[in-house]
């Protein structure tokens, strides 16, 4: 959308239903969610491998599902190497079909695959691609609101792509309320935990900071058992916010000061993240600032020295891949 | 958490756990110090009671203790059965040997005939003591080669650095000479200062490029010498390194507006508008709402977005684009 | 015979219903954003469909319902239908997918409202800072201009075809221009022509602003290159630049004027006119009814 905005659709999609149905083959069912079934298939003309997300219509009381609408709405607009590509949309009599590029792996699978070793260059490369993707969303005023390793998909050529825009929304008018019940719990920013309704892109940056920590630790960084526990776990690790370090925090709707934990010293963080360089630690601290207005945005993150110090970010094609022997084609449900 | 002293990893993040290959129970470092410093003692885990020695405690490498244990067993067996492929006349025999090792490892790892297997291992060690030692010697020689290689690499680096320094020095002298020449010429020549400067500049550029080429060829030569002399070198494909661009062009550095300074919440006065900032009473009111501020909401974000949107697509003339568009486009 | 609607009749008919969108949205106290999106959906729907295929009444409600969802102003189908008379939930839900399909699954619509606010801010920056440029223009004058321009948008941009022909910032500037030509033109000149001498000096420092740059790829290095270019610039370069600046400015003003003209072409449709067309349309939508009617009449005549 950095290019001129025209009122008509930017991408000429196939006209109406009909012929589009025959352009793609559905071959293998790979997953089923509450509102969609995912198939693997091919684009008939080019032979390109694709995934088709078939969204059921007519099963919800209030018509088309909100997350389906959001996904279509925002993916139609975003074109970036680090955002999943919506190849086409077509309709069959009772279904809405999203044709997406095929992304066979995700970051969660890699993090859990203990046979795969991550180097700092690998982590840097994934962080870089995630930040570029989210920078593109934010610069078009779109919040993702559900960043987690499981939604960062990996293409066969190693490119990381942000996917699942079912919770995404554009920043609204200045006085508009936003729902604070967004983002998967472990990656939820403290302002959301306090019920903030006027948050910013900083919530996505927090998620990225937590993912960064997880890439280094190889286990979830702040795994709260429930919403209350999430506050406790978060503040145990990063300190309980006060008016001093986070002005106006006590005005947030669900603010409570539960247990007061001290801010972790740099040495404590250094011990926790023994593999991190000082620059890596700097970036992580900037991304996990409790006060959203002090948290660094995507521009500052991308300009951070961490990305220019050695080692260089690994070339996407050289990044670690899923170890082959673990592959069980149908056992794992793929979420797209 | 350490089950013995109940210390929490969250509260003392620098605590480490140790295990003993006798029973693989996790005990924190301070407990190990406390319990085993005075000599062998039984494992403090209830119902374990294995006698443990402090010097056998080590850090756990793998999350899965079964893997940790298997690695330990492999190490132990590998120290005795330490032959490599070159010690066998044929691949078949070597495979037979490996198969044998696997058999032993499997038995030990899965608690099958442990006593017999250990006895067998012991017997083999006694019978082949000399062979094992000899093999060990040969292997350490090989690793010594690796050390040598690394040293040579370091020497090469130093060599390169020296050449670079020498060339830098020459460059410096050359520059001084040029400076002097310039002054002389300006005093004597009839040409204008600008012309002289231009000439010198051209000379300097051509010298610079030739110098660069020189340096590159020297470096390449050194590399070639080094690589041909050492057996470890594998030919790696030359990597084309493109300069790092954090945004890959996805950033607008030519905003078509200059923003006025935006005031902080405390600085906004309801009546006064002469602060040199934008004036919008409604927004100023929002900018003071504490709930908004606590959530990260900022006035300058609102202004920046509105201004961005004012100039996105302003210069896009749809009529022109339509006439220049290809007629095949439906 | 069934007489079909002429394109003109169809257009008049749709204009009448477009106005109903605003009424419906106001009834539900929906934000402007929803109103504008619904109107845009409605117009786009009938770019590819005809009122003789789908009667506008339910399409209108469906567009409002879908727009509300798309703009995060969710309203449940039950409360939506309860408030409207003479329509059923099933009708709207059945049409929802058809509407989405006709929109080619494009839901994001850029409206001129936020660009207009952006210009309100930039007018302040250009005309009032560091000191006022026009003796009779103050913050209040600009605030007033902004409010009137907003009304202009509501009156002329929502229902007319300008959204298909111009980009949102162009429509926003058209609203400003038509509301107060003198102030807007001063802004445009200062902004894009750099009429003042002092501004020329600013250009030299690398602060160039070209109105058409967004068609070029903007890469990281472009800023640096811009600076380098600036240094080696000679006078003739400057003249060329002033010339292209002039051209851009003129194109922009021409575009704005055209936009105003098209926006104001729409003439209000009367209820009577619309009723007439509605009748014609009824038989086009339900040809069987017409045949039944004819048969009845023939039967009567035979008796």
Describe this structure in words.
- Chain A: This is [RNA-polymerase]-subunit kinase.
- Chain A: Belongs to the protein kinase superfamily. CMGC Ser/Thr protein kinase family. CDC2/CDKX subfamily.
- Chain A: One of its GO terms (cellular component) is chromatin.
- Chain A: Its EC number is 2.7.11.23.
- Chain A: GO terms for molecular function: ATP binding; cyclin-dependent protein serine/threonine kinase activity; RNA polymerase II CTD heptapeptide repeat S5 kinase activity; RNA polymerase II general transcription initiation factor activity.
- Chain B: InterPro entries: MAT1/Tfb3, MAT1_centre, Znf_RING, Znf_RING/FYVE/PHD, Znf_RING_CS.
- The complex is a heterotrimer of chains A (about 325), B (about 325) and C (about 300).
- Chain A has helices spanning about 20-25, 65-75, 105-110, 120-140, 190-195, 200-215, 225-240, 265-270, 280-285, 300, and strands at about 25-30, 35-45, 50-55, 85-90, 95-100, 105, 140-145, 150-155, 160, 170.
- By secondary structure, chain A is of the alpha+beta class.
- Chain A folds into 2 domains: about 25-100, Phosphorylase Kinase, domain 1 (2-Layer Sandwich), CATH 3.30.200.20; about 105-320, Orthogonal Bundle (Transferase(Phosphotransferase), domain 1), CATH 1.10.510.10.
- In chain A, the strands form 3 sheets. Chain A has a 5-stranded antiparallel beta sheet. Chain A has a 3-stranded antiparallel beta sheet with strand order 6-8-9.
- In chain A, a hairpin with a 3-residue loop joins strand 1 and strand 2 (about 35-45).
- The longest helix of chain A has 20 residues, at about 120-140.
- Residues about 1-20 and about 325-335 of chain A have low confidence and may be disordered.
- With about 325 residues, chain B is mainly alpha-helical.
- Chain B contains 10 helices and 5 strands; from the N terminus they run ββαβββααααααααα.
- Chain B has helices at about 30-35, 65-80, 90-110, 115-125, 130-190, 195-230, 280-285, 290-295, 300-310, 320-325, and strands at about 15-20, 25-30, 40, 50, 60.
- Chain C is mainly α.
- Chain C folds into 2 domains: about 5-110 and about 280-295, Cyclin-like (Cyclin A, domain 1, Orthogonal Bundle); about 115-265, no CATH class.
- Chain C is elongated, with a radius of gyration of 25 Å.
- Chain C starts with 6 loop residues before the first helix and ends with a helix.
- The model of chain C is unreliable at about 195-230 (pLDDT under 50).
- Classes of the chains: A alpha+beta (about 325), B mainly alpha (about 325), C mainly alpha (about 300).
- At the A-B interface, helix 4 and helix 8 of A face helix 8 and helix 9 of B.
């Amino acid at each position: 959308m950095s290019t001129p905005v025209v009122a008509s659709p930017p991408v000429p999609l196939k006209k109406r239903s009909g012929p589009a149905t025959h352009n793609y083959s559905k071959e293998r069912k790979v997953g089923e969610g509450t509102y969609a079934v995912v198939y693997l298939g091919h684009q008939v003309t080019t032979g390109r491998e694709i995934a088709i997300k078939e969204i059921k219509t007519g099963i919800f009381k209030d018509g088309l599902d909100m997350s389906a609408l959001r996904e279509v709405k925002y993916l139609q607009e975003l074109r970036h190497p680090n955002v999943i590509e919506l190849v086409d949309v077509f309709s069959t009599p009772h279904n809405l079909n999203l044709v997406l590029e095929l992304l066979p792996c995700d970051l969660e699978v890699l993090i859990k695959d203990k046979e795969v070793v991550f180097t700092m260059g690998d982590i840097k490369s994934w962080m870089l691609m995630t930040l570029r993707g989210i920078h593109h969303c934010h610069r078009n005023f779109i919040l993702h609101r559900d960043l987690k390793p499981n939604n960062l998909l990996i293409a066969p050529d190693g490119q990381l792509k942000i996917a699942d825009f079912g919770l995404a929304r554009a920043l609204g008018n200045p006085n508009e309320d936003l729902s604070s019940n967004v983002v998967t719990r472990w990656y939820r920013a403290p302002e959301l935990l306090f019920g903030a309704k006027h948050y910013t892109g900083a919530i996505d940056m927090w998620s990225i900071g937590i993912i960064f920590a997880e890439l280094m630790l190889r286990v979830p960084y702040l795994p709260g058992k429930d919403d209350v526990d999430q506050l406790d776990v978060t503040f145990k690790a990063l300190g309980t916010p006060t008016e001093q370090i986070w002005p106006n925090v006590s005005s947030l709707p669900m603010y409570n000061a539960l247990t007061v934990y001290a801010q972790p010293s740099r040495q404590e963080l250094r011990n926790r993240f023994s593999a991190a360089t000082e620059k890596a630690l700097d970036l992580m601290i900037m991304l996990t600032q409790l006060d959203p207005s002090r948290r660094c945005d995507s521009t500052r993150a991308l300009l951070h020295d961490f990305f220019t110090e050695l080692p260089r970010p690994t070339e996407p094609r050289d990044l670690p891949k899923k170890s082959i022997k673990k592959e069980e084609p149908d056992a794992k449900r793929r979420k797209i | 958490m350490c089950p013995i002293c109940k210390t929490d990893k969250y509260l003392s993040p620098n605590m480490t756990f140790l295990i003993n290959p006798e029973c693989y129970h996790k005990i924190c470092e301070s407990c190990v110090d406390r319990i085993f410093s005075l000599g062998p003692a039984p494992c403090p885990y209830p119902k374990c009671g294995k006698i443990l020695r402090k010097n056998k405690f080590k850090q756990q490498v793998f999350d899965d203790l079964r893997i940790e244990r298997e690695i330990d067993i492999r190490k132990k067996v590998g120290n005795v059965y330490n032959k490599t492929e070159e010690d066998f006349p044929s691949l078949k025999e070597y495979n037979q040997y490996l198969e044998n090792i696997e058999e032993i490892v499997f038995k030990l790892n899965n608690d099958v005939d442990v006593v017999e297997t250990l006895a067998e291992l012991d017997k083999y060690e006694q019978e082949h003591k000399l062979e094992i030692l000899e093999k060990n010697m040969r292997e350490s020689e090989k690793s010594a080669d690796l050390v040598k290689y690394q040293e040579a690499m370091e020497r090469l680096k130093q060599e390169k650095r020296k050449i670079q320094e020498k060339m830098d020095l020459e460059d410096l002298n050359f520059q001084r000479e040029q400076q002097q020449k310039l002054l002389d010429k300006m005093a004597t020549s009839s040409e204008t200062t600008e012309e002289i400067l231009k000439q010198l500049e051209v000379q300097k550029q051509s010298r610079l490029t030739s110098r660069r080429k020189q340096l590159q060829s020297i470096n390449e030569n050194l590399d070639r010498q080094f690589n041909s002399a050492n057996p470890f070198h594998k030919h790696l494909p030359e990597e084309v390194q493109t300069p790092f661009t954090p945004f890959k062009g996805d950033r607008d550095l030519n905003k078509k507006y200059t923003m006025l300074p935006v005031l902080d919440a405390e600085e906004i006065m309801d009546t006064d508008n002469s602060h040199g900032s934008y004036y919008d009473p409604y927004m100023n009111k929002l900018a003071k709402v504490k709930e908004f501020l606590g959530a990260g909401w900022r006035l300058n974000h609102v202004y920046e977005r509105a201004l961005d949107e004012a100039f996105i697509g302003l210069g896009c003339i749809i009529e022109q684009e339509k006439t220049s568009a290809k007629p095949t486009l439906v | 015979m069934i007489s079909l609607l002429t394109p003109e009749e169809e257009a008049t008919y749709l204009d009448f219903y477009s106005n109903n969108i605003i009424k419906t949205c106001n009834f539900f106290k929906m934000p402007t954003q929803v109103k504008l999106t619904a109107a845009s959906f409605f117009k786009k729907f009938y770019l590819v469909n005809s009122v003789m295929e789908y009667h506008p009444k339910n399409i209108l409600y469906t567009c409002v319902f879908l727009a509300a969802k798309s703009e995060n102003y969710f309203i449940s189908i039950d409360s939506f239908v309860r408030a409207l008379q003479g329509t059923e939930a099933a009708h709207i839900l059945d049409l929802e997918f058809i509407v989405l399909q006709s929109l080619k699954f494009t839901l994001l619509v850029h409206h001129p409202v936020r660009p207009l606010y952006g210009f309100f801010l930039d007018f302040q920056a250009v005309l009032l800072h560091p000191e006022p440029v026009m003796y009779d223009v103050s913050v209040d004058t600009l605030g007033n201009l902004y409010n009137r321009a907003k009304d202009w948008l509501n009156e002329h941009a929502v229902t007319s075809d300008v959204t298909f022909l111009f980009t949102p910032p162009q429509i926003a500037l058209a609203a400003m221009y038509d509301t107060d030509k003198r102030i807007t033109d001063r802004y445009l000149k200062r902004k894009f022509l750099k009429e003042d001498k002092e501004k020329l000096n600013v250009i030299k420092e690398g602060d160039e602003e070209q109105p058409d740059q967004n068609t070029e790829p903007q890469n990281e290095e472009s800023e640096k290159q811009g600076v380098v270019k600036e240094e080696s610039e000679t006078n003739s370069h400057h003249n060329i630049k002033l010339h292209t600046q002039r051209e851009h400015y003129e194109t922009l003003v021409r575009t704005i004027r055209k936009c105003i003209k098209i926006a104001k072409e729409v003439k209000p449709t009367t209820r009577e006119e619309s009723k007439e067309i509605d009748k014609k349309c009824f038989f086009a939508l339900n040809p069987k009814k017409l045949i039944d009617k004819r048969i009845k009449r023939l039967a009567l005549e035979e008796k």
